[in-house]
Amino acid sequence: MKKIINDPANVVDEALAGMAAAHADLIEVHRDPHYVLAREAPRRGKVGVVSGGGSGHEPLHAGFVGFGMLDAACPGPVFTSPSPDPILAATMAVDAGAGVLHIVKNYTGDVLNFETAAELAAAEDIEVEAVVIDDDVAVRDSLYTAGRRGVGGTVLAEKIVGAAAERGADLASLAALCRRVNANVRSMGMALTPCTVPHAGKPTFELGDNEMEIGIGIHGEPGRERMPLEPANAIVERLLAPVVEDLPFGSGDRTLLFVNGMGGTPLMELYVAYAHAGKVLAQRGIGVERRLVGNYVTSLEMQGMSITLLRLDDEMLDLWDAPVQTAALRWGR
Amino acid sequence: MKKIINDPANVVDEALAGMAAAHADLIEVHRDPHYVLAREAPRRGKVGVVSGGGSGHEPLHAGFVGFGMLDAACPGPVFTSPSPDPILAATMAVDAGAGVLHIVKNYTGDVLNFETAAELAAAEDIEVEAVVIDDDVAVRDSLYTAGRRGVGGTVLAEKIVGAAAERGADLASLAALCRRVNANVRSMGMALTPCTVPHAGKPTFELGDNEMEIGIGIHGEPGRERMPLEPANAIVERLLAPVVEDLPFGSGDRTLLFVNGMGGTPLMELYVAYAHAGKVLAQRGIGVERRLVGNYVTSLEMQGMSITLLRLDDEMLDLWDAPVQTAALRWGR
Fold first, then answer.
1. Are residues A171 and A52 in the same domain?
2. For labelling, which of A271, B82, B138, B290 has a CA lying 20 to 30 Å from the CA of B254?
3. Domain boundary among B122, B154, B183
4. Comparing C-alpha atoms, which of B58, B266, B305, B302 is closest to residue A299?
5. How many angstroms separate the CA of residue A14 from the nearest CA in chain B?
6. Do B57 and B155 have their domain in common?
7. CATH code for the domain of A274
């Protein structure tokens, strides 16, 4: 196992210490239990927005804590859900009387632990709404998940809902908006290589020298098909066709196209994929009005990518453009 | 070779097409010869700032074209210098009568081709100054380079000088500022894995399962030492000690600490390294006032990192904080 780490048991703690030191203007890292809190939270009258999940997907979620996106993130151990304790602590820390929205990726452990935390928060008179993101069209059920997995769509939901929360939307409106984003977003991923979880010390799966896996999950969960490696354009079409057909997206739709790297994929390759994805969508009459290209929802050092497509309406588009200041996304405050 | 590409011969072109489509608000990509031009360039009265070099180090340099950084970038083939033609074309395109600054990484081909382009520009009555960045302390001479290589310090020079150009500094002042940045910045890198140049199809070098290379260049050029893998903290100390001792940095210095990934390194590992680097500097009385953590000067999918330290003065600090809007760095415009 080749990694720039000290002790596999401490890698999340040490990475959070680095984040705390690097981004002290944006976040503070709390310990026992662990959560990452926006420097300005809680803010009176503002609904708190909290997400979280296993670590190893950085910058998701801690890299999106700050202004205009998340108020707190709960990072679990690598590829393992955070327990209810830190979720409750984060929920209490961001509550300013207007309630708290939980944005939860659809993995069984995450969903259960966020639910438990929400019940405990209710006992403390904190109103919590939870929205489960399940945008991955690859497989119906999977290792760790009943129903579809939550992947790239989560970043878009966090940005759009976070912007609405900044503008003072109430909890019910934010939950409705988050559900609307989830209802209009679809994703699918693929991998060229596996990744190695530090405490496991060996790759999560094996792929032949000339093989790729289509429809893979962000923890290396099996996808739709293992097959010979193809050119970038063919890969893009394999990911994009089921994404487009699932919603379905259609001619005249205005979209946000998100080409996401799995962590070990060079930016150059993501732009090669983006170029072709835009052409394929144009052929179908689907307009790309906004985009995101980069490594945002990763699987440690896995090489591969996912494509996420969001059907935008005027409100989502306006909220996407709103100022954001976080470690991993920032513009225009 | 596992990559998300179509044809190794077209990978740079296709990636640039993707960049052009994704960032049409910031840049336009010109062909025959190839260069990436800021959407707003040329601007009357403003000195043009141009950089470039072999591709495969993305987001360097095209990802830094826009507002407050570069006016143009000249991407060569993968790991190969751009020829004088595109450099001349970019220089002419950004010139608005106030002259053009070339920021050149110290590789023999880059230096020669930028020099030739500057001579050709002079024949067109365009005043050009060139500053060569040579911040890598690892080795004195190297494959492709007489003297020290230019690496991470280039990003910091482009940001600081770009901000000064935005504020209307003249060519001589910008060149002096760029030399001052170069005189105060030092870097060193390491690799856990090699990378594969698309048209070569095989790794640039071999590293054993438990080996790392300290002092490596961004094209996989040999470094100081190949040795058994060590924990993150020991690696950080191996990179930071020669960086600090070379300038030397000393107690009371205010610095910008840049922990850069080589392309295939997860963000989590870069934050682990950042945490320890900050501690080591604090022990020496060196203050970290600004920082950058991420994959900014890469070697395709290489796993590894470099550490860059810049001694800040008040002017550099103020220029670092100035607004910037590019594909890869953006804040506060």
1. yes
2. B138
3. B183
4. B266
5. 5
6. yes
7. 3.30.1180.20
Structure token digits, residue B12: 């740079």
Same domain, B17 and B113: yes
Catalytic hit among B23, B34, B57, B276: B57
Q: Are strands A48-55 and A100-105 parallel, antiparallel or unpaired?
A: parallel
Nearest to A157, CA basis, from A129, A185, A130, A138: A185
Q: Is A219 noted as a catalytic residue in this protein?
A: yes
Structural domain of A123? 12-183
Q: For residue A4, give the chain B residue with the closest CA.
A: B232
Residues of A in contact with B305 (CB under 8 A): 4
How large is the ipTM?
A: 0.97
Judgement on whether residues B138 and B237 belong to the same structural domain of the protein: no
Residue A135 lies in a domain: yes
A57 as an active site residue: the answer is yes
Structural domain contains residue A24? yes
Q: Which residues of B touch A235 (CB under 8 A)?
A: 4
Model pLDDT for residues A252-297, shown as the tens digit of each residue: 999 999 999 999 999 999 999 999 999 999 999 999 999 999 999 9
Same domain for B178 and B189?
no
- Which residues, 6 or more positions from B26, have their beta carbon under 8 angstroms from its beta carbon? B38, B39, B65, B66, B67, B325, B326, B327
Whats the size of chain A, residue-wise? 333
**Terminus-to-terminus CA distance in chain A, angstroms?**
41
Q: Which residues of A touch B21 (CB under 8 A)?
A: 274-275, 278, 288
Cβ pair B275:A18 closer than 8 A:
yes
- A65 and A156 assigned to the same domain: yes
Last residue of a domain, one of A147, A164, A183: A183
Please indicate, yes or no, whether the overall pTM of this predicted structure exceeds 0.80. yes
